Amino acid sequence: MIRFADGATVPPLGQGTWHLGEGERPRADEAAALRLGIDLGMTLIDTAEMYAEGGAEEVVADAIAGQRDRVFLVSKVYPHNATRRGTQAACERSLKRLRTDRIDLYLLHWRGATPLAETAAAFAALVASGKIIRWGVSNLAVDDLEELPDPADCAADQVLYNLEHRGPEFDLLPFCAAANMPVMAYSPVGQGGTLLRHKALATVAGRHDATPAQIAIAWTLRAPGVISIPKASDPAHVRANAAAALIVLGPDDLAELDAAFPPPRRQQGLDML
Ligand code: NAP
Fold first, then answer.
1. Given a cut of 90, is residue 191 above it in pLDDT?
2. Best of 237, 246, 247, 272 to mutate for ligand 1, by most ligand atoms within 8 A of CB?
3. H or E segment at 75?
4. Does ligand 1 lie within 6 Å of residue 138's CB atom?
5. Exposed/middle/buried for 126, CB within 10 Å: 0-12, 13-18, 19+?
6. Facing residues of 113 across strands?
7. Average pLDDT for the chain
8. 26: alpha, beta or left? (left if phi > 0; alpha if psi -120 to 50)
């Protein structure tokens, strides 16, 4: 389990929802895939007002109907809404679409023009009114986190982290570990792109009777304090991803992956999608 600074715990493997609600598949199938994931233990669901302009939150609402208390719900406010008043209004719209009375973790999606202190104050007011339980950020580098009025109030940072984007290992992961701040790794399977076709992943996958995607997920989970949130609408992918939580990579596997995807030797700018 991964523990937030306030003591709440979540499983290290959750589910993403980017591109849900866009009509790629019937909405009922997308909700069913999320429900399958919940049943398989991936009870943290990550969404955002941005995804399908609220459509993904509506799919999540269908998936969690009747089982809200089993789920740890994460959503995000657009930077252009992240003012004192705009944050409050955006949160209320998200709660309505999610058909719930609270969001467990509410994130600033990325840094925009609004001062971080103003967004932090808006989040604090939402915590006080019980509409959100805790707040965090996304796509913020260490120097951004240091600018927060009180970084200890920030529950999590969600960043692009997979074998092809290892920059956070140099400074962000150690900073967050020292602050008891879990890091959420987004796009852990590289959005199903070139990462999954890499030879090194295939070799390691062969050793574990697993797929490259499962190895990519298991690799993100090897880091302490990291929550991985793959998105999958194909039920076979959902099942495979849930099983990836059980794969333990050995020293040979990690050495092979390090050779193919070298760890960062110096500070790098934070990549984002
Ligand atoms: P991802 O999870 O790395 O990849 C999703 C893609 O990979 C989908 O096309 C999915 O296909 C496929 N896939 C999933 N599991 C697979 C498996 N076992 N084998 C083969 N293919 C598999 O990318 P992502 O959606 O960009 O990232 C995950 C989540 O992180 C998002 O959904 C979102 O919640 C969050 N995110 C946050 C930010 C941010 O700025 N904070 C940015 C990007 C993403 P099917 O759907 O067909 O199963």
1. yes
2. 237
3. strand 72-77
4. yes
5. buried
6. none
7. 97
8. beta
Distance of CA 53 to the CA centre of its chain: 18
Distance 18 CA to ligand 1 centre (A): 7
Expressed in angstroms and rounded, the spacing between residue 188 Cα and the centre of ligand 1 is: 7
Q: How confident is the model at residue 39 (pLDDT cuts 50, 70, 90)?
A: very high
Q: What is the pLDDT of residue 151?
A: 87
pLDDT at 234: 98
Angstrom distance (rounded) from CA 145 to CA 147: 5
What pLDDT sits at residue 237?
98
Write the residue with the smallest CA distance to atom 36 of ligand 1. Answer: 186
Tell me the C-alpha distance between 69 and 89, whole Å.
Answer: 24
State the CB neighbour count (10 A cutoff) for residue 252: 10
Query: CA-to-CA distance for 83 and 88, rounded, in angstroms?
Result: 8
| Cα(227) to centroid(ligand 1), Å | 14
Ligand 1 contacts CB of residue 104 (under 6 A): no
Q: Looking at ligand 1, which residue's alpha carbon is closest to its atom 5?
A: 191
Domains of the chain: residue spans and CATH = 8-192+224-237 (3.20.20.100)
pTM equals: 0.98
Q: Reply yes or no on whether 51 is catalytic.
A: yes
Whole-number pLDDT of residue 79: 98
pLDDT category at 194 given cuts 50, 70, 90 is: very high
